[in-house]
Write a structure and sequence with these properties.
Elements: H1 27-56, H2 62-86, H3 100-109, H4 112-123, E1 130-136, E2 141-147, E3 159-165, H5 172-175, H6 180-188, H7 193-208
Antiparallel strand pairs: 1-2, 1-3
Helix pairs in contact: 1-2
Length: 209
Amino acid sequence: MWGAEDAMYTYQPRAELRPKGLDGISEEQIKQHWKLYEAYVDNVNELNRSIATLIEDGKFGPEYSELKRRLGFEYNGMILHEHYFSILRKGSKAPGPGGELGRAFEESFGGFESWKKEFTAIGKMRGIGWAILYFDPLHDVFSNHWITLHEEGHPAGFVPILVMDVWEHAYMVDWGTDGKPDYIETFFRNVHWAKVEENARLARRAVHA
């Protein structure tokens, strides 16, 4: 008999995204952060199972409502960490003005340094959250945003291009709870700009196809 278990996709941690040998970000920091990401994957699967069972039983009361709300937090926690880990790699050079990403920074921010200055300022804001560079497919522009929790503040329809985790767990192993500025400086030494440019190219191509 077809049931809730048959209707669900089971997520797995994406091991190929786990960063290695970063410049200034320790293996222990990545290890602890990766465990947190794995927990989000587990929680997404557990919530999906519980919600599917409630749907199968026709129970759409308070329990269903609260689990459905929680799913947004856990699901976005999983996805944002995958975006974050995917753009960390040692030894990548910042984009020049001639490339597609460089032109995007020029058009939307006045240049790479102007973009970086604002993005850094967003990352240093007090509070837990994320700094994210998005592409707006409706207007064909890029913009920086602060996301408080995983699921709160995302501009509808925008595509994440570069994601920086600025919750304390992203840096406290290496720098302590007040180490956010040092972490952000080190983060930029490890951005895999070719991947970021690919993200931007694919997002724009989808609009202009």
